[in-house]
Amino acid sequence: MRFVIVTGMSGAGKSSVLKMLEDIGFFCVDNLPIQLILKFAQLAYDQSSQLDKIALGIDIRSGQALEGLNEILVEAISKGYSYEILYLDTVNEVLVKRFKETRRNHPLSGNGRVDAGIELEREKLEFLKKQADFIIDTSQLLIRELKIEINKIFVQEQEYGNFYITILSFGFKYGIPTDCDLVFDVRFLPNPYYDQELKPQTGNDKPVYEYVMSSQKSTEFLDKLEDMLEFLIPNYIEEGKNQLVVGIGCTGGKHRSVSIANALSDRLSKLEYGLKVEHRDIKKDALQKKLV
Q: What positions does the entry give for GTP binding (predicted)?
């Protein structure tokens, strides 16, 4: 029996995750009253139930009853009802944007500000986050990327480190991404822009990638950056951080930053964390030329 409690911040994607779990064979129940959880678990664990995968959605909609959830979970363990907690999180700025776009009120904001409701919800759910077996930060995830993470945990049963790394290439002339935790400037590396054959290509193309990586400076920079990140990440995790956005910038975000971001991703893929690469400005140069 696999019994999963899906919880987390309103607007972080719990409904989408329950649908994903249902698609892979879970029997899903959303917003079950807290008082019925033990009874539900008893029925689920009954040998005649013929259920082997169950997902239960629990969140702030439970109201005051949520305060008694911890006691119920302790009793569930004492009765032999094992469970896992999947916690979905998102940074406040993204949550506010999502509520504004959907024109929905936050469950705890009432007639007040959305951000106040979000902060209150975060406080009330903190005890669940601390107990979570899996934490997924959906701030930067597309639905298809979230589905990949769900499949890693519940289909492929890969080890999940509750930490997500985004490597983001960008061009300084388009501005530094506001969501970066760390920003590195690679404009000191040889620039393929001045080679007429390489200029129209990007760091995703082999000739450009090999041109950038042929420099000893590139290798030394990656060695030092990899070493620093392997030091920082465990310390970030210890402080409760569950995602890291690493910005790699060059002038236009098309050649050097893309190449280095891809190379860094290859190096970090050996770590047991969620990992993705984004190239924010890779097509902007071509777009601007069309506009002109």
A: 59-62
The pLDDT tens digits of the residues spanning 105-154 come to: 788 777 778 888 899 899 999 999 989 989 999 988 889 889 988 998 89
Q: Is residue 34 annotated as involved in ligand binding?
A: no
Q: Is 169 annotated as a binding residue?
A: no
Section 246-265 average pLDDT = 97
| Cα distances (Å, whole numbers) of residue 50 to 1, 3, 18, 179 | 10, 13, 20, 46
Q: Is 62 labelled a binding residue?
A: yes
Cα-based distances in Å from 119 to 58, 62, 125, 129:
18, 17, 10, 14
Ligand-binding annotation for 286, yes or no, is no
Whether the Cβ atoms of residue 281 and residue 170 lie closer than 8 Å to each other? yes
**Residue entry with tokens 């969620």:** 274
**Residue 8 among known ligand-binding residues:** yes
Name the CATH architecture for the domain at 2-154.
3-Layer(aba) Sandwich (3.40)
Q: Tell me what percent of the residues of the chain surpass a pLDDT of 90.
A: 60
- Annotation-wise, does 14 bind a ligand? yes
pTM: 0.69
Q: Is 59 annotated among the ligand-binding residues?
A: yes
pLDDT per residue over 34-51, tens digit each? 999 999 999 888 877 788
Rounded Cα–Cα distance for residues 58 and 8 (Å): 8
Asked if residue 49 belongs to a known ligand binding site, the reply is no
Highest mean pLDDT among 76-80, 142-146, 206-210 belongs to 206-210
Q: Is 227 annotated as a binding residue?
A: no
Tell me: is residue 60 an annotated ligand-binding position.
yes
- pLDDT bucket at 292, cuts 50 / 70 / 90: very low
Residue 191 DSSP code: -
163-182 as b/e, with b when 16 or more CB fall inside 10 Å?
Answer: bbbbbbbbbbebeebeebee
Can you tell me the distance from the alpha carbon of 235 to that of 226, in angstroms, rounded to the nearest whole number?
A: 15
